[in-house]
Amino acid sequence: MRILICNDDGLHSNGMRSLERVLSRNHEVWAVCPDRQRSGTSQAISLRETLRMKEVEARHFQVSGFPVDCVNLALHSGMFPPFDLVVSGINHGYNLGDDVHYSGTVGAARHACIHGYLAVAISCGIYDIGADFSHVADWFGQWLEENLPSLNTGVVYNINYPELPSPDLRSVFTRHGKRIYRDQYEILEEEAGKSFVFKLKETIMGHKEEEFSDFSAIESGHVSITPLGLQTTHDQELQGWIENVKS
């Protein structure tokens, strides 16, 4: 099987390299990643800007764009062979709850899903860029081999591996939880009360306590696997409006 790896942390991140080492044991792996840190870019894509792609080593490319640009070039530039699976990660830090709307890691996997590919995003609660992610990659490699026949297109399998795994670690299929954000900005420059320069100083993150959510699995020390769909229509709201029109 031929696998495309991408991420939002760059080509030389420990998470990506650990993932590549494991998947290369049984599969042909190609890596196409941004040339700089691109966290929080969601599904941003370069529409009017030119893109530069450089082959750093065999089957390893870096792109002067966003994670979605990396996937798009790999799938549609005509320079790559066809892929069977796209894996985005291993991200340094969780992508839980509403994080999935902002995450470049999940955004890259979602883009592959939109184009009909099997797609997985994997993240871990370890934020240290120098940390060893070998144990996460080993777990994922085994999980993938066991579950690959059951994976479906049209779904993004959003996997989060706990920073502190339970002694009886297991994988749990979960629902997308509710993240709570409290943001604080710092004013860096102010000109006559009319022009301001801001910097996001701090984001304090909490979450709603819900049974069977991705947060509850991580809090229990287990791996959370949330199947994310592409359909975002609020069916209950839509049905209410339809009924109002009918009446």
Describe the structure in your own words.
- The chain has one domain (2-177, 209-246): Stationary-phase Survival Protein Sure Homolog, Chain: A, CATH 3.40.1210.
- It has helices spanning 14-23, 67-76, 104-114, 134-147, 214-219, 235-246; strands at residues 2-6, 28-34, 53-57, 60-63, 85-92, 118-124, 155-161, 171-173, 179-191, 195-207, 223-229.
- The mean pLDDT is 94.
- It contains 6 helices and 11 strands.
- α1 (14-23) packs across α4 and α2 (67-76) packs parallel to α3 (104-114).
- The strands form 2 sheets. It has a 9-stranded mixed beta sheet with strand order 3-4-2-1-5-6-7-11-8, sandwiched between helices. It has a two-stranded antiparallel sheet with strand order 9-10.
List keywords for this structure.
two-stranded antiparallel ribbon; Stationary-phase Survival Protein Sure Homolog, Chain: A; 26% helix; single chain; nine-stranded mixed beta sheet; 247 residues; globular; alpha/beta; 6 helices
What is the fold's blueprint, element by element?
Layout (H helix, E strand, L loop, with lengths): L1 E5 L7 H10 L4 E7 L18 E5 L2 E4 L3 H10 L8 E8 L11 H11 L3 E7 L9 H14 L7 E7 L9 E3 L5 E13 L3 E13 L6 H6 L3 E7 L5 H12 L1
Parallel strand pairs: 1-2, 1-5, 2-4, 5-6, 6-7, 8-11
Antiparallel strand pairs: 3-4, 7-11, 9-10
Task: Put the structure in a nutshell.
By secondary structure, the chain is α/β, with parallel strands linked by helices. Helices cover about 25% and strands about 30% of the residues. It is globular and about 55 Å long.
